[in-house]
Amino acid sequence: MELFVDTADTNAIAELAEMGLIDGVTTNPSLIMKSERDIFEVVREICDLVEGLPVSAEVVATEAESMVAEGVRLSKIASNVVVKVPLTWDGLKACRILSGDGTKVNVTLCFSANQALLAAKSGATYISPFVGRLDDINLDGMELIAEIVEIYDNYDFETQVLAASIRTANHVCDAAKIGAHVATVPPELIKKLVLHPLTDKGLASFLADWKKSGGEILK
Predict the structure, then answer these.
(1) 130 has pLDDT over 70
(2) d(CA 208, CA 118)
């Protein structure tokens, strides 16, 4: 499973990219607003940081024609831009037009398998089901991921399942086990994936034994 980072924080992206831990980046208007910078400036910088890796940049228009115009403008920032559109009727229209012209499209705000089916038929490169937001209303977000993976496998759709709204380390593991192609994860959660109390306990024990032996840590 590929791991995307869900942020517009260029410092966090640079660190994760340098470590080789991410395969792409997803952004949205809310994330970019936190940076207090121009969307095109931010997207351009991110694309430079992760050259060649997909960077999702979302339109803010709500009508198909305007979505397409905005999507074309975003796609001209860099060759690795993936245009994000919402899973609305107009969003599907825009997806069809943009994908037909060779632009990669991430259809976002997906909350049902039927929506995902329509997105795939409209030519989406990625479908983004929101796991955490379904969990918030006492539905099983991972069940939706499993349904979409099954449907796409049944009919050999090329659209990749991008598990979004990831809130916990278990979400990441479950998405990988179910067969999601991608999970997009906030940078702070990616860092938490390395943590385990037994790792910390084991390291502390090793260091204590080394200290008792009179050994020195090389600097």
Answers:
(1) yes
(2) 58
Distance from C-alpha of 139 to C-alpha of 59, rounded to nearest angstrom: 28
Q: How confident is the model at residue 219 (pLDDT cuts 50, 70, 90)?
A: low
46 burial class (0-12, 13-18, 19+ CB within 10 angstroms)?
buried
Bridge partners of residue 58, in order along the sequence = 84
Residues with catalytic annotation? Answer: 84
Quick one: 84 exposed, middle or buried, by C-beta within 10 A (0-12, 13-18, 19+)?
buried
pLDDT the model gives residue 76: 97
| DSSP one-letter code for 159 | P
Per DSSP, the three-state class of 130 is strand
* pLDDT for the residue numbered 194: 97
**What are the pLDDT digits (tens) for 131-152?**
999 999 999 999 999 999 999 9
pTM above the 0.90 mark?
yes
DSSP string over 10-22: HHHHHHHHHTT--
State both tokens at 29.
């208007």
CB atoms within 10 A of CB 90: 17
Q: Which token pair is 216?
A: 């020195």
| Beta carbons within 8 Å of 120's beta carbon, 6+ residues apart | 127, 152, 157, 158, 159
Q: 37 near 30, Cβ under 8 Å?
A: no
